[in-house]
Each structure stands twice: as C-alpha cells, then as structure tokens.
Amino acid sequence: MKDKFLEIIKKRWLRSVLLTAVLFAIIVCAYLGILYGMSKVNIDDIDFTKEKIYSISQATKDKLQNLEQDITISVYNMYEYVEDFAHKYANLNNHIKIEKVENLTAKTDWKTNYGVTDTSAFIVISTKNKEKVLFDQNLYTYDYTTYQQIDITEEAITNAILDVTTNVKPKVCFLTGHNLYPDNYFGYIQNSLNAEVNEVETIDLLKTGSVPEDCKVLVITALKEDITEKEKDNILNYIHEGGEVLLLLDPNLNKVSTPNFQKVLEEYGVNISEGFIMEADTSRMMSGAPNFVISPIDSNTEIVKNINMGLNVFMINPGKLTIAEEEQLKEKNVTTQVLASVSDKAFYRTDIQSSSETRIKSDEDAKEAPVAAMFTKENGENKTSKMLIFANTAFATNMQLQLDSQYYMYAVNGYNNEDILLNSVSYLTEREDNITIRKTGETISTYNVNEAQTRMVLGIIFAIPIMIIIIGFVVWQLRRRKK
Description:
Layout: H1 2-41, H2 58-64, E1 71-76, H3 80-92, E2 96-101, H4 108-114, E3 122-126, E4 131-135, E5 140-143, E6 148-151, H5 153-165, E7 171-175, H6 187-195, E8 199-203, H7 205-208, E9 215-221, H8 229-240, E10 244-248, H9 259-268, E11 270-272, E12 276-278, E13 285-286, E14 289-296, E15 312-316, E16 321-323, H10 326-331, E17 334-341, E18 347-349, E19 364-365, E20 370-378, E21 384-390, E22 400-402, E23 408-410, H11 417-428, E24 442-443, H12 451-482
Parallel strand pairs: 1-2, 7-8, 7-9, 9-10, 10-21
Antiparallel strand pairs: 1-3, 3-4, 5-6, 6-24, 11-16, 12-18, 13-14, 14-15, 17-20, 18-19, 20-21, 22-23
Helix pairs in contact: 8-9
C-alpha cells in the first residue's frame, strides 16, 4: 500500500515537473517569437519626450509624403539608435527600404568613391542613379558657445534623401563686393540653404558681368558703399526678366549715399530708414534690451503657409520700411503685403550717439512700423518678380550674441530667424512644400548614475524577480503542508 502511494506521489510530481517545463518552454518560445516578430515589423518606439526628439518630425513627413522614387538607406557600423531611426523612414514611405550592411566585401565601389574602410561608420542614401554618403560626424554638430553636441540625424538623412531625388537645385546667389558684413558672417545660413537642397553661390557682378541666368534668388545684404551703375543695370535687368530678390538691409546709420542702389528699391516702391527702431513693449524685446526687437510674422503671409503656429523674427537695431502709397505702387505694377511690424509702443531713433534705453526727446513715434514686407512686381509678358525685404541684416548672420556671462548664441538662431529665412527662399524658389518649421537639434547629453542609483537598478533587475520566486516557493510549501 505504501509503495503504491509513493508511486502515485512520484507520478504526480513527475506530471507537475513536466507540466512546469512545458509551460516554461512555451513562455520562452512565445517571448522569443514576439521579439523576432517585432524586429521584423520595426514597430516605432513610443516617444514620451515633450519635443518628440525620437520621432520623425512633421516637417520630414511633409517633404517626403509625395516621394515616388525608390530609396535605399544602407547603414554600416552605426550606433543602434541611428539604425532604429533609419527604420522610421521605411515606416513613413513604402518607397524607402533599409539595408544593414554587415561587411564591405561587395561594396568596393564605396571604398573607391568615398574612401571608406572596414572601421568607418556611415550611411549611404541611394536611388537608381544617385547616392550620397553620410559619415557619423555628419549626424551631429557642435555649439562652440555652449560646448554641447547637437544631434542632427533627422535633418541630415532627410536632406540627403531630398538631395538624391531632386534633379535641379535652385541657385541662390549672394551679392558681394560692397558688403558691410564679411562674407563669412553668412556661413551658417548658407550651410543651412545647402542642406535644404539649394545651390549657394557668392557672386561679384564686376567679375561675372551679370547675374547668372540660372540664379533663382539674388540675396543682397547691407552695403558699406553704393553699387556701380553697371551693377545697378545688371540687377534691374535681372528683376525685369522675372528674377526673385531677398533683401536683408540694415538702416543706413552712416548715411552713405547710394543713388544706384536706390534705383533698385524704387522698382518696388520701398525705402529703408537712416534711423533704427527700439521697442518699449517688454514682451516684444529680448532680455530687457529695447534694441533687440521681436516681431511676429503675419500668419496670413506665404512664408508661414502650412504652419500651425506663430513665427517670430528677432532683429537687432532694425530699420523702418517706408512703402509707397497704393497709387504709386499701382503705377509700378507692384502689390505688397507687410510681413512683420513692431508694437504700438515702439519708437524710432535717429540720434545714434544716444545710449538711452528709454525714449528721448528726439525720438519719434514708430507705432506698428513695418520691418519686413513682401512685394510682387508684374513686368509684362508673364514675367513676375517677387521680393522679400527685411529691415535688418544682423538677424541672418552668425554674429555671436552674449546672453549672459556663460552663454552665447548666433543671431540667426534667435527665435525663428533661421526658419523664416529658409522659408523665404522656399517661397521665392516656388517650393511651397518646403515651407515648414524644422526640427530643432537637440543637445546630446549623458547621464551618469551614482553608486546608490546603480544598486537600485540592479535591485529592480535581479532582486525583485528573485523575491517573487522565493515567495512563490514559500506559498507552494504552505499549501502543500495544509493538504
């Protein structure tokens, strides 16, 4: 009887063990199956960050929504997060596929064309006819004012896709030869324009003899002296042929005589002041500095088309635009719209020697004075010339502004300056689908845990599961004894 009882116990125990083993195997297989399935379908991670820094931005979605060319993003030796981010593009558009390259044995052309080695880390974005390589250092930039690394992975990949799928790049020409600011002051915005798939060129009309025929936008910045009569004629001819112009002009504080350049401004019926505007509305100035003026862009204008939020331009000592009366504009076949104005508390200063931050006796009222405007000129024969003018040059430069004793920033990075400039060029080059708010580069920071935090993490990973097992074993033993 006793032997029979022991045999029953053993059989029950054996069944329990076998059942437990089978259940354990099923759980493990299910877990591995789920992991494998998730790796194949590339489900997007859930992004809980406020700025959605780990998600594809709406700007990229807008730019790639009509993509019809087949794109391959080949990733070699990159960080895992870069590969994960690349997969988000494949989920975004069926024409984009991701290839993880394990070795370069079959990629000898990359070694020849790009000088890559087996230890390189890079991405190749390619179509049937074109390809572009991005090295790991192309996925971040460095802010030498805050000494922080800025991640630009999305910007780099998106612009590379646009680069290989765009057959013609609009040419943006910066006029040089009489500039008040050195050419390198526009290096930042020129790099941004290049990244937006434009071809940027600096031209001296006295050397080229004329504005290049393929110049889509002519950019003229503040002048230290007048242009020559020949240059004036070249620019006017460019306008009459339907050329587009972006003027970034400081007020003429030094009262330089520019009769030739005035002829260019007269084509559109606009002029810029010799004095500058200061703000008295504290909500429309930066850091309590009345000459650091913040003005909202009119939400009804084309350069904020498809943007569901307000943009603010930040200018330093901006001038005041004087626009001709409607009857005069009509005679010139010009229509206009104000882009940005100052507040109703702003004032206009001509005494540049004064350092007063409040209004002085000689200051004039500048209530809602325009500081940016857009013009359209009909030249006949279906030739239309558009012009955008901003009464400031400094806001477009990489001039360093000291925010406090520790931090600086480039003027072009103030508020929405860069977006406004890039959108202005997109409007002038008739690429309205490129008018958007670009994703802000986020600082890459590291988090170093201390010893106590390390123990807590290890406790969560190991101690809690062990405790659950022990509790389960104790409960099982208690129940067994009760039986």
